[in-house]
Design goal:
The complex is a heterotrimer, with 2 copies of chain A (232 residues) and 1 copy of chain B (278 residues). Chain A is mainly alpha-helical. Helix content of chain A is 44%, strand content 10%. The two termini of chain A are 27 Å apart. Chain B is 48% helix and 5% strand. Chain B is built from 9 helices and 4 strands. Classes of the chains: A mainly alpha (232), B mainly alpha (278). Strand 2 of chain A pairs antiparallel with strand 1 of chain B.
């Protein structure tokens, strides 16, 4: 099949599908076809589609669960007018809980409460679970066997992320003894600078390790050939 | 604090930036005594309380309000401001979450330790504020992270998914494959089960008769008589004739067909039982 | 607003909308905008979009209630595979019902229920009829006039049988089970061979013998309630 035809089929599929599709999913659709394209051809076609859309109102976006065609952010303001309802807002409590789970997974409710200094309402956990943004990864081996929470692929999809690596960098923690008054804490750029990222404390290193782990798990497109967790 | 009422939380979130919180309406200084002549609806103060995500958040607010770095938290001053806030809440009989009181105790303890002369050798590691500062920073980075996540492009606000109309799809839903073996096993099982609650055993299935019964029923109609002989065929031989005859007798017994013979030795006609619909 | 921008906004809206949009709807979305396009401009933009899509996997189609973006029919073949269902498995109840109809036809639903000891769902009957494995042969002359079911030509074809005679008898099924505890009927040839043999033997058998057998069988049926007619 020609590249043009493959591109058209792929864009037809992506436009019709109601969830992101990874290369594996797309490949499976052609199984049984006589002139079945290779996965490399599929990747090439996706790449070209992405280029084709450069000047259009929509784009090909790669998120955790695969590729999807979405409206470009530039046109969101007009598209949003289609619906009378305003997009949902999330409370700070929910967002803080969510960010702790995202950066510190696997984490228990107790550990979240420790950092936030207040109890986490069951409502928030329930809401996050209902949205399928978080899931129970297991249970911590301490008295009470509290659930360990982690983020799901849907969470990444929702925020247009490919992996946890793409989350904004956490601000660093400064040592009280090395305090310099001129180092204003609330200067965001300062803390996001890559050079300082390296100096981050163990906490964030830990979070990154978790992120790596999850990334590997999700990474079925990059090296579809290799073994690991390709059941996704 | 128990679980915050989600609605109240939404209100506070909508009020957005803390720096603009109505707390500043209390003249930049926290009130220690509520003016008796001024009625402040308790709801309004609850909104203020809800604006803070807990004691750490409140402390951060008090520090930032003075443009100070968390690292140089002026314990004495902050403790005093914090306590006035708590006092005000108590005066207004607003239920204060336990976490706020625990923090008050912690602040008081730090304050008292800072007043004591510090042994010089332990100076480096033993700043009594260390733990509080660590917690404040830790909280602050996640407070920031929450804000960052909130600003990420998200579906339904910054991104919209596409959903093209589908062409006409020929959906041929594949039918299940069945192995003859499965069918036979099902029959064996169902017969075994039926043996358990019936008194007799069925050893032998008279398939050819049952099948012939079906064939006869297919051939005949309820409206017209079918010639009896047309149901037999020479090729089947004697055995075929016996089977057909038995099938006919069985059908008569089950009142599924009518056999009609107008006079002795006249030809016999077959008709589906009158009540049949076909 | 340039024509290019208008086109992009329109295609973004049409892709995101869940219903067709006419020019009036589209026009309303721009109300309040400073550089609000005219309706003629909107029409022109739609026209150009339609041309742009000529070589793509989707098209702009106009239906009674307005315009919508639709996947081209040419690609329906692949898009349809997104929702392709795996063939389900038939339930035990269905197989039992089918086997009773095969071995005991003509048989009413009530009679099947009597043997199975449980009611037979209408779904099962409907499924078997839709598959054209069974058909109504007539109606039994008892209160309610229940339908009498029998197997069809398609049933025999599917199982590669020339006639119902080729179905093994219950005794044979049991024997096979005993003879090859593991292989039991695993292989179709295995199960076919003995039944053919039996069929041959029956051919040469005396009609009287057959008649006897059948007589007993009929008695069984007639006095199902009583214990008098014990089996052979």
């Amino acid at each position: 099949m020609t590249l043009e035809k493959l591109k058209n089929i792929l864009e037809a599929i992506l436009l019709a599908a109601d969830k992101p599709m990874n290369v594996q999913h797309l490949d499976a659709i052609f199984s049984g076809d006589e002139d079945r394209p290779t996965r490399d051809e599929i990747r090439k076609a996706l790449h070209e589609l992405s280029d084709d859309y450069a000047e259009r109102g929509f784009e090909l976006s790669q998120v955790a669960s695969g590729f999807r065609i979405q409206v470009k952010q530039d046109y969101a303001q007009w598209v949003g007018r289609l619906w009378e309802e305003k997009p949902a807002r999330y409370t700070r409590a929910l967002l803080e809980t969510m960010s702790l789970i995202a950066y510190r997974q696997p984490i228990t409710r107790g550990e979240i409460e420790e950092v936030r200094g207040v109890s986490v309402s069951s409502n928030i956990i329930r809401t996050l679970q209902e949205r399928e943004w978080i899931k129970v990864l297991g249970h911590k081996d301490v008295p009470g066997k509290p659930a360990l929470y982690g983020t799901s692929r849907e969470f990444l999809d929702y925020f247009n992320l490919k992996s946890l690596d793409e989350l904004p960098t956490l601000a660093e923690i400064k040592d009280l003894d090395k305090a310099y008054p001129e180092l204003a804490l609330d200067d965001e750029e300062e803390s996001d600078a890559p050079s300082e990222q390296v100096a981050e404390m163990e906490d964030s290193a830990e979070a990154e390790a978790v992120a790596d782990e999850i990334e590997t798990e999700l990474d079925d497109d990059a090296d579809a050939g290799t073994s690991s967790a390709s059941g996704v | 604090m128990t679980e915050p009422d989600p609605q109240a939380a939404t209100v506070s979130a909508n009020a957005s930036k803390q720096d603009e919180m109505p707390f500043a309406l209390v003249q930049g200084e926290p009130l220690t005594v509520v003016p008796q002549d001024l009625y402040i609806p308790p709801d309004a103060l609850e909104v203020i309380l809800e604006a803070f995500e807990g004691p750490l958040d409140l402390l951060l607010y008090l520090i930032k309000r003075q443009n100070l770095d968390v690292l140089e938290v002026p314990i004495a001053e902050i403790t005093q401001q914090y306590m006035s806030y708590i006092d005000m809440m108590q005066t207004l009989k607003i239920e204060i979450a336990a976490e706020y009181l625990v923090m008050a105790a912690m602040l008081a303890e730090i304050k008292s330790r800072m007043l004591l002369p510090r042994p010089t050798e332990a100076e480096d590691e033993d700043d009594p504020r260390a733990e509080l500062v660590r917690r404040l920073q830790e909280y602050e980075r996640f407070k920031q992270a929450a804000q960052n996540i909130d600003e990420l492009p998200r579906i339904g606000r910054d991104l919209y998914l596409t959903d093209a109309e589908l062409p006409e799809l020929k959906q041929d839903r594949p039918v299940p494959e069945v192995d003859l073996k499965d069918l036979l096993m099902a029959f064996k099982d169902v017969m075994a089960r039926s043996e358990m609650y019936s008194h007799h055993q069925i050893q032998r299935e008279a398939l050819s008769v049952r099948e012939r019964m079906s064939k006869v029923l297919e051939k005949i109609s309820a409206h017209d008589f079918t010639d009896y002989t047309s149901l037999f065929s020479i090729e089947e031989g004697r055995r075929g004739a016996v089977v057909t005859l038995l099938a006919l007798l069985e059908l008569v017994k089950e009142q599924l067909i009518d056999l009609v013979q107008s006079e002795p030795f006249a030809s016999i006609h077959v008709k589906a039982a009158a009540s049949s619909e076909k």
